[in-house]
Each structure stands twice: as structure tokens, then as C-alpha cells.
Amino acid sequence: MQLKYFSLLLVLMAAIAIIGCEGPEGPQGEQGPAGPINAGYTFLGDDGNTCGHCHASTVASWEATGHHQAYQALVDGGDETNLYCVQCHTTGFDATVSYGDTVVVDHGPDMSGFDDYWPPATAEDSMRVEDLKNVQCESCHGAMGPEIMDHAPILTFETMAVGGVEQSMCAKCHEQVEEWHESGHGMALENAGITQEEWNDEFNAGGSASSTSTCWTCHTGEGFAYANDPQWTGTTRPAMASLIGCPSCHDPHSSTLDAQLRNLNDYTTQYTAADTATYTGYGASQICVQCHHARRTNSNVASQINNGSEHFGPHASPQMDAFLGSGSYEIAGYTYDRTHSHQTIPEGCVTCHMEFRDHSDPLGWSGGHNWEPSPATCQTSGCHGAMPADFDLNGAVTEINGLMDELLSTIGVPVDSLGSASLTVAQREAGYAYAFLYNDGSHGIHNPAYALSLLNNALDYLSSSSAVAQAGAAWNK
């Protein structure tokens, strides 16, 4: 009897070895059907079916993205024989090709990618070309073969270059990464004067960027995904931190939201001097305000005003609040203008900060990932005619900068001392307007009407005979 059961066990083990293990997939979804037996190729392709054995829902989601239709897009445009295009619309293509090349001469080290079978001359070539069309799982996560069970997929949120070597899985084909390197996100470490090693040390030591801090959800790529994508919520957090880069905002596996973004939810101001204001209906730019908001509550602002604070003013990202004409401390008894024509711009942040510029690439690719607006944006959007290089239309920027200088001079302290407990409450009340606009960083352009209200009211308040009495009343609350 024992021999009978032992024989049955051997049969079952052999079956599992041939078919593969159908273990759970984790947070990405349920397991799929058994994948094909490895044919010995490095890149398996097969439209993601091998990966779908364990990652069924992820593969199903990927099938709705542009990556899954990448090769058909070439066919539709008549570019399926243009190797310069084909290299980024297929899987495993590692040959070196230049624009205009029609023949693959310098094959890369791998010999089982799309370029190694193109143009097809045999039945195997034709089969492999079909198997390796489109941007499949292995294009980003690395080859599955030749031994599937030894596969260690490349999984990274990194976009930056280390030692001149691109770490991003997107950089090979998406030249927008070049712009990202020049952006505030890409220059975060340089601007902070720290190295990648110091950044990771802070993350692991529980510093402001760490997973034990609320800061990490907007200052690391992993944190942003964990906070803004339900598929990542609750999974194990990593031991290192990446900068905000491509996969922070964009979900490579899903096209549920515009531009494959992770979160386009509405966001409402946390501090409310009057009525709440909500950023809604601005398309792809809804993802920007998940981080670019002031982050201060009414109780926090009241404490800053009455008691002083080393971290005076809003968090250094109140762009949404400024745009909406809300979110700053407002002095009682004054009227504040909140509405400006910029609020009618259809896609808000994206319209101005993602200008699509022509580049030197032969195909004329366009991008907007350094988030630097230009005067041309104001003109091409149809909002303005000729725009000065410094955006100082009708002297608005000059006026606002002048009022900011006047306000700081009237208070009599540098910007990092506006929350000093040695100042009067009246000075801190007025100083909050300066701190808010200083942290917004747009010189009032996001909402000139609100900026002028904040500054003019603050200056009038400081010069008013009632300022001392009001300050005393606030101090004694």
C-alpha cells in the first residue's frame, strides 16, 4: 500500500515539474493558466502568456495599454520596416541601429530577441517574430529564459542615472527621461546637496524621506505608488528610496486612467480661511495636486500665528492652493479675491507645465517632463498674445515681487525668521502671506488676483492702527 502511494506521489511531482506551479500572484491579481514549457529561448515573448501563469490580472491589464498595441501602431503608420521604430515596439531588440538603417549589422549580445529573426527567412523566424512583437513584460523586466525558474525580474522605481548609466526601465525608448533629468524631480538630490547613498541612509534611518514618515509618500517613487495605487497599498515596503520618476506617476501595467496615471482624484484644501476649495476636473493634472498642496490644517495655522513656529507657513508645495485662491492664512476683516482666468485653463498644471517641445530626434518626438513653462505656452494655448520672456505681462510679476519685498522689509526679518516667537502676532499674521507666496514659487502667476489680495491686505493691516489691538486679541486666545 505504501509503495502504491509513493508511486502516485512521484507521478504528481513529475506533473508539477512539467506544468509549473500555480502559486498565488500577490497584490496584482489571481493566478492564470499554466504557461508553456520553456523552449530554450532567452526571450520567450508569447504575448505575456508565460508571465500570465502567475500574473494573470497584471497581464490582462497590460493588454489594454499602448504597449500591447505597439507593433500594430507601426503597421498602421506604415513603419513596420523602419528599424529605428521597430527597436522600441518589439521585445528583446538589442541590435544597434541608427535612423535610416534598413539592415541589422551589429547584433547585440542576446541572440533570441526580435532583431535576431528579422526579416524572417524560416518558419522558426516567422514564429519568433510573431512571439516578440509589442512591448511585452520582458521588455522592462528582463528575459524569462532560458531557465524560467531562475528568472529574477528587474523591478525598480528608479529613473535616475548612476555613474552615467541609466537605471530607468523606460529610458531606452522614452526620451522624455532626458527632460526628467533636468527637472526639479530629477535634480532633487543635487538641489538638496546629498548623494544617493545619503538619501537611502535617511530612508532606512527614519528620516523625513523614510517609510516611517508621512513625507515619503511624496518624496519617493515607491511611497507615491503605495499611497496612490490600490494595487500597492499594504504590500511590503522597500529598503531603499527612489526619486519621483516615471513609474511613480505612471502605471506601466494599466491604462484605466489617462496617460496611465495612478491617481486622478479630486483634492480639497486642508486649511480653510473661508469656504473649502477643491481641485477638480483638470484632467491629467489631478495627479500633480496629490502632492503639490499646502498640507496645513486650521489648528496648525492657528498655532503658527499665535505661538510662532520654526516651520512657519505652508509646506513648500502650496501650488494647488495658490491656483484655487485659497489655503493661506487670511486676516479677519479683509476681502480676498480668489477667482482668476487661469482657473479656466482646461488641464490646469499640465497645460502650462508640460509644453510639448520639438527635439533633435529624427522622428521629432515631443515631451514635457522638465515641467518648465515657457512664454510660448501662454501664446499657443490661445490665452495671451505676445508674452515677455520673464512672464511679466502688464508688469504683474514686477508688481507682486515689489509688494513681497516691501512686506518682508516692513516686517524686518529674513524669510526664515517669519515664524519667530519674538515677532508680534500681527507681524506673523501678515508674514504668512509672504511665506505662502514664497513657497508657491510662481511669483503670483498661478493666481495673480489672490496674490495681490494677500500682499495688499497684509501691508494695509500692518500700517493700520487696529493691527496692535487685533494682534493682542489673537495673542490672548
Output the radius of gyration: 28 Å
Overall geometric form:
elongated
Strand/helix succession: HHHHHHHEEHHHHHHEEHHHEEHHHHH
Number of domains: 3
Largest sheet: 2 strands, antiparallel
- The total of helices stands at 21
Report helical residue fraction: 25-40%
Averaged pLDDT: 85
Strand order of the largest sheet: 1-2
User: What is the end-to-end distance?
Assistant: 87 Å
Account of the protein in words:
The structure is a single chain. This protein has about 475 residues and is mostly helical. The protein has three domains: about 40-140, no CATH class; about 175-260, no CATH class; about 265-360 and about 370-475, no CATH class. Helix content is about 35%, strand content about 5%. It has 21 helices and six strands. It has helices at about 1-20, 50, 55-60, 70-75, 85, 125-130, 135-140, 175-180, 190, 195-205, 215-220, 220-230, 245-250, 300-305, 320-325, 350-355, 375-380, 395-410, 425-440, 450-465, 465-475; strands spanning about 160, 165, 265-270, 280, 355-360, 365. It has a two-stranded antiparallel sheet. A two-stranded antiparallel ribbon has the order 3-4. The protein has a two-stranded antiparallel sheet with strand order 5-6. A hairpin with a 2-residue loop joins strand 1 (about 160) and strand 2. The longest helix has 18 residues, at about 1-20. The N and C termini lie far apart (about 85 Å). Residues about 1-30, about 35-40 and about 470-475 have low confidence and may be disordered.
